[in-house]
Design brief:
Number of strands: 0
Strand content: under 5%
Structural class: mainly alpha
Distance between the termini: 78 Å
Order of helices and strands: HHHHHHHHHHHHH
Largest sheet: none
Length: 318
């Protein structure tokens, strides 16, 4: 090299850290673009969802309407057990607008008055009556005794003269209880899910199911009357109440949710305990035993739990 040639330093190669940093920066830009950038349109088709109708105003599936349309399909008003059940129980603790929504959906001719529907068990009134009948009863323990009395009255035979306050309640509600039995003879059960009264809308998980609580209340009332009938040796009539509970459990299980499945299992479990109590009666006749066997063998199975998971539970958070 000539001494007069200027020195030119060699070019530095880019550091690998610059390449890595550049790639990470590009990925970060892409991430934030996908997070905050314009979203692509959701295409509602069999490739994205099995619910392609009905649709909301924004073009997405209307899950609430889908569930209602699916489970009320082909149910005639005069074949729907829920219509008779609500006539028997009335609004209860529901807000007026909620019961009006139920009445409109089920085509109830009129909203039943509280005087013509099942009266709830007033435990305070029963406590007061027990204190009158049994002066030796400790007033402080009377509420606990009443709760235990009601629990046993639903699962063990008792005579009408043993618990006069409860017997009086049964007689006062005879018509409503008979209407529940009539409802159990129907083949289908549909009662709408209700939207919450607050502003939280749009998700099935926020819907309420007042009919499952109503069904439990009806079943408990039938259980009390059935066990009194067993205690008074009216076994055939007792079996009609118990059979109504078995049927009611299977009717409630037709609903779309796992909550209704659980309610149906609870009602069925109580009815099974009562059936055992009836079959254990020394006054049971051969003919009635054969009738019970025939009726139980004729029961339809519960709804498929896997179908309920597929048709509702997987949708409830949308």
């Amino acid at each position: 090299m000539s001494a007069n040639t200027p020195f030119i330093p060699p070019k530095k190669k880019p550091s690998a850290f610059w390449w890595i940093g550049g790639i990470l920066f590009a990925l970060l830009v892409l991430f934030f673009f996908q997070l905050f950038g314009p979203s692509p349109a959701i295409v509602v088709s069999p490739q994205t969802t099995y619910i392609t109708s009905p649709l909301r105003d924004d073009g997405l599936p209307d899950y609430e309407k889908y569930v209602h349309e699916s489970f009320r399909r082909d149910i005639a008003p005069n074949d729907n057990a829920a219509a008779l059940l609500w006539r028997a129980l009335g609004p209860g603790n529901l807000a007026p607008e909620q019961f009006r929504a139920i009445a409109a959906e089920l085509r109830l001719d009129e909203v039943p008055s509280t005087d013509s529907t099942l009266q709830p068990l007033n435990e305070d009134a029963i406590v007061d009556r027990l204190l009158e009948l049994f002066p030796s009863l400790d007033a402080r323990s009377a509420p606990i005794e009443t709760q235990e009395m009601l629990r046993r009255a639903q699962n063990h035979p008792w005579k009408g003269d043993q618990l006069p306050p409860l017997s009086a309640w049964i007689e006062a509600n005879r018509a409503s209880l008979d209407l529940v039995v009539e409802a159990s003879h129907r083949e289908r059960f549909y009662s709408p899910l209700l939207a919450p009264l607050n502003d939280f809308k749009g998700r099935l998980i926020a819907m309420t199911l007042p009919h499952q609580l109503a069904a439990r209340e009806a079943a408990h009332a039938l259980a009390i009357r059935a066990m009194r009938r067993v205690g008074d040796k009216h076994l055939a009539e007792a079996w009609q109440d118990i059979l109504a509970e078995h049927r009611l459990a299977r009717l409630v299980a037709q609903g779309p949710t796992m909550v209704e499945q659980n309610t149906a299992w609870v009602i069925s479990k109580t009815a099974c305990h009562e059936t055992i109590a009836l079959l254990s009666s020394k006054d049971l006749t051969k003919n009635l035993a054969q009738q019970i066997q025939h009726d139980l063998a004729d029961h339809k199975p519960f709804a498929n739990v896997a179908d309920r998971m597929d048709q509702f539970e997987r949708l409830e958070r949308f």
